[in-house]
Amino acid sequence: MSDRAKLLLVDDRPENLLALEAILEPLDADLVRAASGEEALRRLLHEEFAAILLDVQMPGMDGFQTAELIKQRERTRHVPILFLTAISKDAEHVFRGYSAGAVDYLMKPFEPLILRAKVAVFIELWQKTVEIRRRDALLAEQELATVERESELRYRSLADAVPQIVWTAGADGVVSYRNERWYELTGLPRDGTSVWQDFVHPDDAAATGAAWEEALRTRTPLDAEYRIRLADGTYRWFLGRALPTADGWVGTSTDIEDRKLAEERQAFIAEAGWVLGSSLDYEQTLADVARLAVPRVADWCAVDIFVDGRLQRLALEHADPVKLALARELEEPMLSAVAVATRTTEPVLVKEIGERELAAFRFDENQLEIARALAPRSYVTVPLAARGEVFGSVTLVTAESGRVYGDEDAAIAQELARHAAAAIDNARLYAEAERRSRAARALEAVGDGVVLVDRNGVIRLWNTAATTITGVSEAETLGRPIEDVIHGWAEIAPLIPVASQPGQPVRAETVPVEFGGRELWISGSGVGFEEGTVYAFRDLTEEKALEEMKADFVATVSHELRTPLAAIYGSAQTIRRTDIELDPEIREQLLGVIASESDRLGTIVNDLLVAGRLDADRLPVTVEQCDPAELAATVVESARTHLPENVVLDLDVPERIPSVVADPGQLHQVLVNLVDNAIKYSPEGGPVVLSVANGDGAIRFSIADTGLGIPASEHRRIFEKFYRLDPAMTRGIGGTGLGLYICRELVRRMDGKIWVESKPGEGSTFFVDLPAAHDA
Ligand code: ADP
Questions:
Q1: Which atom of ligand 1 sits closest to the CA of residue 723?
Q2: For residues 749 and 621, is the Cβ–Cβ distance under 8 A?
């Protein structure tokens, strides 16, 4: 609404309008002409008027009709109408004019002063109305402002009351308001100079900044998580939200530290579990986990492990190497405290470390100073325990982060310890399994038989050597009672010494054990342990046999030596006697005994010497071509000199015989031995024949007798050293058991072969094959 009043002058005659204008000119109003009722109505559609001066007589729509229409319209109903007329002066007209809503009815010609005065009243009224309207508007505005102010205040006090940070910013993003909580938390000044970079963690600044820029640009809501630095210098996680409003932004930041910590803990546990499960090198993985813990769940992390009953520090982690170096000074007292803490399997949680708590560590002056400087805040120590055994512990400590541990942190530490302990346990079990499988492999490789018999007498282990020694396989023994496997175990078992615990020394005993009809001499001992008894044994059958042979040899040789010595001694003593006169013939006989028995002694001593030299491989063999017929003849000739009466010794040699390649002296010795045996083991007498034959590239000597004979099972063994078929000499035939051994060794050295064909009671034939000379 414009402040200057307007008057609408309506007349179909321009001269009348002109006259009106002249009269109303001095008034403080704009004059608007309308030449008809229609034009007047049109004007009224767009403009407001202080009053309408309306001619009654107009062609078309007359003044009354026009007035009635004006009065029907809500917006124009109150506009005062003054009718002007030159003719309708009768009462009926006047009445009609008033009833049509006129405020006045003026007759032409007008009195200009009166007309002016009357219209002035309406102008004044208009102005008053305008004034009132203006005031109303002003009032309304003021009221609105008050209301707005109040609502702003309410809003702010609300904003100040909520625990979140609340702020507003202009469309440009420049912060215009921050609530009390913001100042309280950040401790930043109220001068409005701080920007978000001043309190958002540097590590989160880039992402937060980018998100904010993006929100500003697109005018879309912002959602971001970042850490805010609190007044005490520590950081906490917040969820920031900003919403665009009509004239800017309204934002909140909500503390999500607890949620973040929980997430962080879960993530840490998951990752730690993964790291711990990834390797069997638990020392390395524990150190890795300590690194993982800092700074995610702790400012310090220590892992301590028992080694031979003593707690040792495996890992200590902190972000700052200087502090780390300082903390090492505190290791001893800390380990003592941790050792105490690991006496139970419960975690030890100290929420606030004060002077009293520090005193509990019994630090010395210097250490106490370091501890104070490191300013630990909270700690939790959890034992690493699996299957009831405590291996060590994990300690988490907070310091510069300002975090205070609670029960949830203790639970997390326990969870971590569970994972770590399981990892250690697994690694140890694996190492144990490895050790066992190595031990099992070693058991398979050892030469001693090893047999494990459980508490019920059932065989649980039977190694390869046990199979080799006994000839009984693992499959035949495992799971079977030992009595079923070892014949006569009930009698044997008490003979084998068994140590009551590993490491206790016992002397193995040698016992005879029968396996599949074969008797073995087994030297064995055992060790008892919780699962049963382990027996270790070795086969001494050969040694035993040798031992027996040696014992027999001593007996035999002493007998063999004593007999001729006694004869020589007796004969010599008799010859020396002066009390009796010896018949020269007897004297000659006695001298003969001395000579032959000395010869026998010489033979025995010679055999021993030769055997010794053969053993030491110090008997040189010098082969040459020699005549077998001539050699055989010499042997038979000398044997005939001391032939028993009932024995006939024959020589059987073909007309022509090739030379033999041999050491003549040694071949002579072999044939002498064989002929002597043939005579010796024919106690009933009978023929002994030495034959020489031309074989297939070899010269074959055979010495046949019809004496005692040899069982087939002994055909090989008679060639062994000291082996005699009848060591007890039940038949009274002496010997050292060296003859055939010497024969075998000499023949072997001359690239020949020696064997026997014989049946007990039917006699024996010994064969010697030696290479024939090619030139023959
Ligand atoms: P010994 O000094 O006992 O004769 P040998 O080595 O010459 O030792 O012979 C070993 C064993 O072989 C003898 O003890 C004997 O039992 C047996 N033996 C050797 N030659 C004969 C044979 N011609 N007839 C029967 N048994 C024999």
A1: 10
A2: yes
- Kindly tell me if the per-residue pLDDT of 776 is higher than 60: no
CB of 669 within 6 A of ligand 1: the answer is no
pLDDT in tens, 493-546: 898 999 988 888 888 888 888 887 778 888 889 999 888 999 998 888 777 777
- What distances in angstroms separate CA 289 from CA 263, 292, 394, 534, one per listed residue? 17, 5, 10, 43
Q: Residues with Cβ < 8 Å from 33, sequence gap 6 or more?
A: 9, 17, 21
Q: Which of 680, 739, 719, 675 is nearest to 701 (CA)?
A: 675
Most informative mutation of 557, 608, 610, 677 for ligand 1 (most atoms within 8 A of CB): 677
Q: Which of 302, 287, 278, 181 is nearest to 230 (CA)?
A: 181
Which is nearest to 486 in space by CA: 458, 463, 448? 458
The amino acid occupying position 186 is: T
Instruction: Give CA angle at 160 (158, 165), nearest 5°.
Output: 110
Ligand 1 proximity of 735 Cβ (cutoff 6 Å) = yes
Atom 4 of ligand 1, nearest CA residue: 735
pLDDT tens string 194-252: 888 888 999 999 999 999 999 989 999 999 999 999 988 888 899 999 999 888 898 99
Q: Which atom of ligand 1 is nearest to the CA of 709?
A: 25
* Residue 708 CA, ligand 1 centroid: distance in Å: 10
Does ligand 1 come within 6 angstroms of the Cβ of 292? no
User: From CA 139, how far away is CA 135, in angstroms rounded?
Assistant: 6
Give the whole-angstrom CA distance, residue 68 versus residue 127: 25
**Residue 673 · residue 744 · CB < 8 Å:** no
CB neighbours of residue 772 within 10 Å: 21
Tell me the Ramachandran region of residue 595: left when phi exceeds 0, alpha when psi lies from -120 to 50, beta otherwise: alpha
Give the C-alpha separation, 683 to 647, whole Å. 9
Ligand 1 within 6 A of CB of 739: yes
Closest to 49 measured CA to CA, from 100, 8, 84, 20: 8
- What is the Cα Rg of the chain in Å? 68
Q: Is 383's C-beta closer than 6 angstroms to any atom of ligand 1? A: no
DSSP letters spanning 362-393: ---HHHHHHHHHH---EEEEEEEEETTEEEEE
Atom of ligand 1 nearest to the CA of 727: 14
CA dihedral 288, 290, 295, 297 (to 10 degrees): 120
Q: Does residue 736's CB lie within 6 angstroms of at least one atom of ligand 1?
A: yes
Give residue 679 CA to ligand 1 midpoint distance, Å.
10
Ligand 1: which residue has its CA nearest to atom 25? 709
State the pairing for strand pair 175-178/165-170: antiparallel
Q: How far, in Å, is the centroid of ligand 1 from the Cα of 742?
A: 12
* Closest by CA position to 742, among listed 677, 652, 687: 677
Reported as a single tens digit per residue, the pLDDT across 64-97 is 889 888 888 888 888 889 888 877 667 677 777 7
Answer whether 724 contacts ligand 1 (Cβ < 6 A).
Answer: yes
DSSP string over 182-247: HHHHH---TTS---GGGTB-HHHHHHHHHHHHHHHHHT--EEEEEEEE-TTS-EEEEEEEEEEETT
